[in-house]
């Protein structure tokens, strides 16, 4: 009898226990990432997608704002890893598509009817936005996204190392190459431009006096200045004076903070972490000019919020987006200045953001205003990928820049034809 | 279900099962059993294999960007684009070079390990496990270790530290493609992960070779070592070798994880066909049309290669027809 009952226990109860565990595991997995603020919302359920910001507290902040919204139950998907685009676009094709998501302005998203027209939300406060941020989200007079933050990217440098090597802040690419050589010692590399050099793929176009594509939506990057810039970057890449294959990429402050390099290309968001690690031993400068026709430049990237026009709750999503990114100014300021530093696209918030008023952050704002170039909504991801391949084949590999640009032209022209006919 | 209850009760119920459950009732009906056993599999196969295949063939003729339900028919435009205006053809070359190198190398290394482990007098189980363990590691985890700790380009990366002892400068293994150090990273990773598994296959085959063959050879005057290996061991391993080579080829075709994590998508070199298709269809350009066209081309190529291989190596043919 005892043997029988033990068999019984084995077969039934172990199975039950195992299934119970599996079910519990499944439930836990479902409940883990919904970011709900504990039953505060009512009615409609909305989902929003964010890429994982690197700064501590960002995820909690986004979920805190969402929990404060009473008219809908907003859950947050915080996408870690470096494939935010893939995760987002894959999700957009499914029934569980996010209602609200952050991304960059992309003409293709507008043309395919993926993102909703938000003109009526923005119009009342349009004058309060940086006009460039309105322009980069406008297609045929309609505004398709709300800019949350502007993120200028520039060079950070260690003042002490520059002084020790008797190097001035470079204003031309030649000076930068020379400075990198002087700053390189046994343990420290002169410069870090990201592991694959694609972080600077836009600024080398602008610094050479060219543009990505022009007003008439034609290729504008294929100039002698850009070719010269690519050749010089190749020279820098092979000089042995740049940090390569670092454990973290340009968007992370570690390479400069840990003393692996004397200057690093980075974003304004890294500034608080760098100041904390390095104190006053920190300065910034724009990407130096290339050739005689060039001028210094800064890339004004950033993130915008979009409403999924193919979602189930477009109206509720628009209402939520208006509430958070138009009405709730204290959250917008918190988001822009409490974690990493970002520049608020709203003039009124930028004016009240005390953290950006003095010292290095104020210098960052100045570089943003004086040298910044914004995204062009028509210069889409396919074109950017094509130009990234120019960097790969003519800077990291010893390819001919002219030939690489010709290959790029072919791809960009196909894309331009698809978009504009 | 309830209609079969009477029959179920009529049969002797198992001691522990409740008589109310007619578990054995359906056993007599072969048609029901057939669908019961194959049904779930067939449904899965249809949903996850056949529907996607036909869907992607359909997609390949449409302008399908940011959508999988396109409406604009474009004929063979996607095929023209993927074959003439993309890196896809280059990636096929990359893959061929990679396969031509990795398949024989892994084969030789696994066989070598198997021979060594097979000759051990003691601690055989230990070494067998040690060499097999890497198989359990995921490619992604291993790729991150290889990239960020062993072959990191900074001075404190493991390889650079070791080279530093001999006064060699830091090497950027992955950022700088000339010389192509990235192959060292990829090949060592794949060898480390794969050879243990194939070693086990060879080990099993080695233990199946009858000892009499070696005894007979020794009596006939064959020298132990190369001669016995060449004329007895190797021919006896023929079936296993063929299977291993086929499996390795398939694995090479599927190469994605470590390339994706180590090389990344921002490079123009060492992009495998699957990576190019991923970049086209699932990356930021979201061009399902062109991606599907590439997938169809790749499928046709795989069919072709399999047919040719079947013709030459005779894998899967019965013993009689050899």
TrEMBL record, chain A:
CDD domains: PBP2_TMBP_like. SUPFAM superfamilies: Periplasmic binding protein-like II (SSF53850). Gene3D superfamilies: Periplasmic binding protein-like II. PROSITE patterns: TAT. This is Multiple sugar-binding protein.
UniProtKB/TrEMBL annotation, chain B:
It is found in: Cell membrane. GO terms for biological process: transmembrane transport. It is a multi-pass membrane protein. Pfam families: BPD_transp_1 (PF00528). Residues 1-24 are annotated as: Disordered. The chain crosses the membrane at residues 34-58, 92-118, 125-146, 181-206, 237-256, 288-308. One of its GO terms (cellular component) is plasma membrane. Keywords: Cell membrane, Membrane, Transmembrane, Transmembrane helix, Transport. Coiled coil: none annotated. It comes from the Bacteria. The keyword Acetylation does not apply. CDD domains: TM_PBP2 (cd06261). The keyword Transcription regulation does not apply. PROSITE patterns: ABC_TM1 (PS50928). Residues 92-309 form the ABC transmembrane type-1 domain. Belongs to the binding-protein-dependent transport system permease family. This is Lactose transport system permease protein LacF. It comes from Streptomyces griseorubiginosus.
């Amino acid at each position: 009898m005892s043997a029988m009952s033990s068999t019984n226990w084995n077969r039934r109860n172990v199975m039950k226990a195992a299934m119970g565990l599996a079910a519990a595991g499944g439930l836990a997995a479902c409940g883990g990432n919904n970011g709900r603020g504990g039953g505060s919302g009512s009615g409609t359920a909305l989902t929003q997608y964010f890429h994982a910001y690197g700064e501590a507290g960002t995820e909690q902040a986004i979920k805190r704002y969402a929990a404060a919204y009473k008219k809908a139950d907003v859950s947050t998907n915080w996408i870690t890893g470096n494939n935010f685009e893939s995760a987002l676009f894959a999700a957009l094709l499914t029934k569980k598509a996010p209602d609200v998501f952050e991304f960059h302005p992309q003409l293709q998203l507008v043309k395919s009817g993926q993102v909703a027209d938000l003109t009526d939300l923005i119009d009342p406060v349009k004058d309060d936005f940086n006009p460039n941020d309105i322009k980069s989200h406008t297609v045929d007079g309609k505004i398709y996204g709300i800019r949350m933050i502007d993120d200028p990217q520039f060079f950070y440098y260690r003042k002490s190392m520059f002084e020790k090597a008797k190097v001035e802040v470079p204003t031309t690419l030649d000076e930068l190459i020379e400075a990198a050589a002087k700053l390189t010692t046994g343990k420290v590399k002169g410069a870090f431009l990201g592991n694959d050099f694609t972080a600077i793929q836009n600024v080398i176009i602008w610094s050479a006096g060219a543009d990505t594509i022009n007003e008439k939506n034609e290729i504008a990057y294929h100039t002698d200045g850009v070719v010269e810039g690519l050749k010089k970057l190749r020279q820098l890449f092979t000089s042995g004076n740049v940090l390569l294959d670092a454990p973290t990429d340009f968007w992370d402050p570690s390479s400069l903070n840990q003393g692996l390099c004397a200057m690093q290309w980075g974003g304004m968001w890294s500034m608080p972490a760098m100041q904390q690690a390095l104190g006053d031993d920190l300065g910034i400068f724009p990407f130096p000019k290339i050739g005689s026709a060039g001028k210094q430049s800064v890339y004004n990237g950033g993130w915008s919020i979009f409403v999924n026009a193919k979602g189930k709750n477009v109206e509720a999503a628009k209402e939520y987006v208006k509430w958070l990114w138009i009405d709730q100014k204290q959250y917008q300021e918190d988001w822009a200045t409490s974690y990493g530093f970002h520049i608020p696209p709203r003039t009124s918030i930028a004016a009240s953001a005390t953290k950006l008023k003095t010292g290095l952050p104020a210098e960052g704002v100045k570089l943003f205003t004086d040298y910044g170039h914004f995204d062009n909504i028509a210069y889409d991801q396919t074109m950017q990928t094509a130009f990234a391949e120019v960097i790969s084949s003519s800077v990291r590999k010893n390819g001919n820049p002219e030939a690489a640009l010709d290959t790029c032209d072919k791809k960009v022209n196909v894309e331009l034809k698809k978009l504009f006919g | 279900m309830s209609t079969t209850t009477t029959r179920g009760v009529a049969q002797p119920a198992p001691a522990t099962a409740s008589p109310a459950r007619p578990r054995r009732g359906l056993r007599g009906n072969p048609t029901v059993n057939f669908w019961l056993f194959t049904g779930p599999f067939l449904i899965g196969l249809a949903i996850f294999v056949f529907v996607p295949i036909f869907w992607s063939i359909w997609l390949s003729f449409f302008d399908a960007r940011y959508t999988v339900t396109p409406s604009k028919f474009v004929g063979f435009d996607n095929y023209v684009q993927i074959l003439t205006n993309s890196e896809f053809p280059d990636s096929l070359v990359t893959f061929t070079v990679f396969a031509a190198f990795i398949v024989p190398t892994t084969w030789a290394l696994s066989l070598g390990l198997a021979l060594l482990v097979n000759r051990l007098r003691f601690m055989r189980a230990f070494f067998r496990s040690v060499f097999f363990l890497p198989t359990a590691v995921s490619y992604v985890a291993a790729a991150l270790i290889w990239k960020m700790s062993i072959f990191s380009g900074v001075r404190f990366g493991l390889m650079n530290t070791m080279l530093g002892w001999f006064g060699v400068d830091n090497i950027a293994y992955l950022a700088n493609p000339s010389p192509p150090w990235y192959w060292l990273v990829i090949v060592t990773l794949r060898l480390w992960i794969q050879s243990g598994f194939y070693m086990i296959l060879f080990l099993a085959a080695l233990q199946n070779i009858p000892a009499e063959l070696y005894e007979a050879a020794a009596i006939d005057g064959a020298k132990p070592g190369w001669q016995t290996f060449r004329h007895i061991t190797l021919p006896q391993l023929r079936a296993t070798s063929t299977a291993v080579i086929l499996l390795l080829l398939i694995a090479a075709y599927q190469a994605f994880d470590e390339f994706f994590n180590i090389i990344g998508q921002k490079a123009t070199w060492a992009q495998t066909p699957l990576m190019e298709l991923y970049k086209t269809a699932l990356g930021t350009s979201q061009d399902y049309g062109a991606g599907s066209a590439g997938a169809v081309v790749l499928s046709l190529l795989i069919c072709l290669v399999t047919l040719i291989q079947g013709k030459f190596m005779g894998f899967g043919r019965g013993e009689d027809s050899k």
